[in-house]
TrEMBL record, chain A:
One of its GO terms (cellular component) is periplasmic space. This is ABC transporter substrate-binding protein. Residues 1-26 form the signal peptide. It comes from Bradyrhizobium yuanmingense. It is found in: Periplasm. The keyword Signal applies.
TrEMBL record, chain B:
It is found in: Cell membrane. It is a multi-pass membrane protein. It comes from the Bacteria. Belongs to the binding-protein-dependent transport system permease family. PROSITE patterns: ABC_TM1. Its main location: membrane. GO terms for cellular component: plasma membrane. Residues 79-271 form the ABC transmembrane type-1 domain. This is Carbohydrate ABC transporter membrane protein 2, CUT1 family.
Length: 428, 285
């Protein structure tokens, strides 16, 4: 009888409905869950974090990511609000010295046991590792690395300069720029006009001239080093670069000029490794440009590190704690780092990942090789322009001086060096 | 009256107005043109240029396609969020501002100017300064990460402006009107409802335009006090533009900006002619 069937079904249905929440709750107690905030929302950044979330779910976790669109400040506002509300995310994107600074605001998770279990410490660049274990304990995990001082060379501009050798030292670089200029390249340096742009030029110059001076002056803020001759030499090199740039960039993104760069109207670009992803996504061909480590006067690659990381905030909930453990294991996993970097165009933090296989670009292989060599010669240093060397306030004070110097050509390198030292004193 | 339409000064004025308007509209033209070009076309060429062929796909992607991390729903859900915050907050702040402006301008009481001064002080406080206090308030009343919390913020913050506008408008209303009404036995709210509100058309339109535009365009609170799917449209727009390893999506960005600007544009078109009239009404007495 139809009615009975319906009733029976109904009964069965309500019984299931009654049982289900109970069932779900029983499973929920053991199920790892992760609340995460990051600024990764669009493009390949968004795609990469989404892929990571999928992996988290595949392992049986509940992935609750809230992107905070914008830049670091927005994300920090959000993080501060969540911490003040007593509801910090189980994990959030944070990088550089901000990890140490923020770890004083709210309790973090000690990840030492997980890091030891994964053998992570010995495969991470030493300076980078230090940033993630303020006070000697791992509380954050780096996920991917970019170099901020890769040198991109336009093939057509090289042809115009009748050059085929990749410059190794700053003298080679300057020589090539002159040849490009003489060969009809309108602006031997391709650039943008955003704040990190100018900072990147300065840090590439100083670290290329002397990684030791860079470490002492910019990373350790030693007064003597800040007044040393290398700083003046770096400013002198930045002036040369500035003279070869197109001044009409306003506050534009560097990608605005990529077409001119590929066409050989601009010659060289000092940019982070991410630029190759940008070039690829803009539809340019890989054979139209070359990638090399930024100039280094001692001939060995200097690597200016920019690394994204996750910091883990203490939570009492068992499911969130389980989620943190799972997330930490995933972030340190070479397969996950491979997946992540292949989406974003960065390189893995782990120096033991093999990049020779499918899915890696030549630029990524070059970058990874440069990192290994730089670590071996203690020349892997932290980027100032991208907030790795100093906290936001100090970085801003330095970049103010550098940007003014780049734009105002009446300032002498000596004056700029003095101003930089003063700005550092003022921001301390 | 002599026909002055071809007088040299007229022509000069029109020329100047035309030039200023052209300069003012140039960015909009670039945005409209880019909204019809593919990203690749813009990247391979220049930011400024004619579309090679009209590509409407940017609008489709902007409206319901592009991804903000795991969610690929375009700008649409975020437009709805913005509307859910902007419309109530505009109505509440305008009404409360009108009542407050009416009270401090037409119902003189001890300390009224002080109160007015303190309310308008809010105009001079930078947004960032109020961020932490709001965090604490929202936490304590349990409205953090809710759209209701944002409505509350914008209603209260809006009071400074709306009170200022309405008060300046109402001071021009003759006091005799109020006195006569009081003699007839009308109270505070009856006078407001029967006499003041009917006179308030222009200034209410000004405050509505003002509040709507500001709340719709607001980003800092919107991104700090919401999470994930509740974010306002400004957050979605920023999400489109802040990728590191990607070519900026100028085409989709332009289309999204145009779509996101439509509500405010509509409000201006509907109430624009009252805008200047209402603003100056209080000033010229």
């Amino acid at each position: 009888m139809p009615i009975t069937t319906t009733r029976r079904r109904l009964l069965a249905g309500s019984a299931a409905a009654l049982a289900f929440p109970h069932l779900a709750r029983a499973q929920g107690a053991a199920k790892p869950r992760l609340t995460a905030i990051s600024q990764w929302s669009a493009g390949s950044d968004g795609a990469a974090i989404t892929a990571l979330g999928k992996k988290f779910e595949e392992k049986g976790g509940v992935w609750q990511h809230s992107p905070v669109p914008g830049f670091t400040t927005e994300m920090m506002n959000k993080l501060r609000a969540q911490i003040m509300a007593g509801d910090p995310p189980a994990c959030s994107q944070l990088k550089g010295p901000e990890i140490a600074a923020w770890s004083k605001i709210a309790p973090t998770v000690n990840l030492d046991a997980l890091v030891a279990a994964a053998g992570y410490e010995k495969v991470v660049a030493p300076d980078l590792a230090k940033l993630h274990k303020p006070g000697g304990k791992w509380i954050a995990l780096p996920l991917q690395i970019y170099s901020t001082n890769m040198l991109f060379l336009s093939k057509r501009a090289m042809d115009k300069a009748k050059a085929d050798k990749v410059p190794v030292t700053w003298a080679d670089f300057n020589d090539l720029a002159e040849k490009m200029k003489a060969g009809g390249v309108a602006s031997p340096i391709a650039n943008g006009g955003t704040r990190p742009d100018d900072g990147q030029k300065f840090e590439a110059a100083l670290a290329g001239i002397s990684p030791l001076a860079y470490r002492a002056a910019i990373m350790n803020l030693e007064k003597k080093a800040l007044e040393g001759p290398e700083i003046k030499a770096a400013f002198a090199q930045v002036r040369k670069i500035a003279d070869w740039m197109d001044p009409n960039v306003g506050a534009q993104h560097f990608s605005t000029n990529l077409k001119r760069f590929i066409d050989g109207d601009m010659g060289m670009m000092i940019m982070g490794g991410w630029a190759q992803g940008v070039l690829r996504n803009a539809g340019f061909k890989l054979e139209d440009f070359m990638i090399a480590p930024g100039p280094s006067d001692n001939g060995k690659p200097v690597f200016l590190l920019n690394a994204d990381a996750f910091i883990f905030w203490q939570r009492k909930e068992a499911d969130l704690q389980a989620g943190q453990t799972l997330m930490a294991q995933l972030v340190m996993d070479p397969a996950i780092q491979t997946m992540y970097s292949q989406i974003t165009g960065s390189i893995p933090v782990r120096t033991d990942v093999d990049l020779s296989g499918e899915g890696w670009s030549e630029g990524q292989r070059t970058t990874s090789k440069a990192l290994k060599e730089a670590i071996a010669s203690n020349q892997a240093v932290l980027s100032m322009a991208h907030n790795m060397a100093q906290e936001n306030g100090m970085t801003a004070a330095m970049i103010d001086v550098i940007t003014e110097y780049v734009k105002n050509k009446t300032i002498k390198p000596e004056q700029a060096a003095t101003r930089l030292a003063e700005a550092v004193e003022g921001a301390r | 009256m002599p026909d002055r339409s071809f007088a040299p000064t007229r022509i000069l004025i029109y020329l100047a107005v035309f030039l200023i308007a052209a300069a003012w509209l140039a960015p909009l033209v670039v945005v409209v043109l880019n909204s019809l070009r593919t990203n690749e076309e813009i990247a391979q060429g220049s930011m400024i240029g004619w579309p090679q062929h009209l590509s409407w796909s940017n609008y489709a992607a902007a409206w319901s396609g592009f991804c903000v991390a795991e969610t690929c729903a375009g700008i649409r859900p975020y437009m709805l969020n913005s509307a859910l915050v902007t419309i109530p907050a505009t109505i509440f702040s305008t009404l409360l501002g009108a009542i407050a402006g009416y009270a401090v301008s037409l119902w003189r009481f001890r300390g009224d100017n002080w109160i007015y001064g303190i309310v308008t002080l809010g105009l001079f406080l930078p947004q960032q300064m109020r961020l932490l206090p709001w965090t604490i308030v929202l936490r304590d009343i349990g409205l953090i990460n809710t759209l209701t919390g944002l409505v509350l913020i914008h209603t209260i913050q809006g009071l400074s402006f709306t009170t200022l506008f309405c008060r300046n408008y109402y001071v021009a209303i003759p006091h005799e009107l109020i006195r006569a009404a009081r003699i007839d036995g009308a109270g505070f709210f009856r006078i407001f409802w029967r006499i003041i509100l009917p006179l308030s058309g222009p200034i209410l339109i000004v405050t509505v335009i003002w509040q709507f535009t500001h709340i719709w365009n607001e980003f800092l609170y919107g991104v700090t006090f919401t999470t994930g799917q509740q974010q306002p449209v400004t957050a979605a727009l920023i999400a489109l533009s802040a990728a590191v390893a990607d070519i900026p999506q100028h085409g989709v960005q332009s289309a999204a900006v145009i779509i996101a600007a439509l509500p405010t544009l509509l409000i201006y078109l509907l109430g624009g002619k009252y805008f200047v009239r209402g603003l100056t009404a209080g000033a010229v007495k």
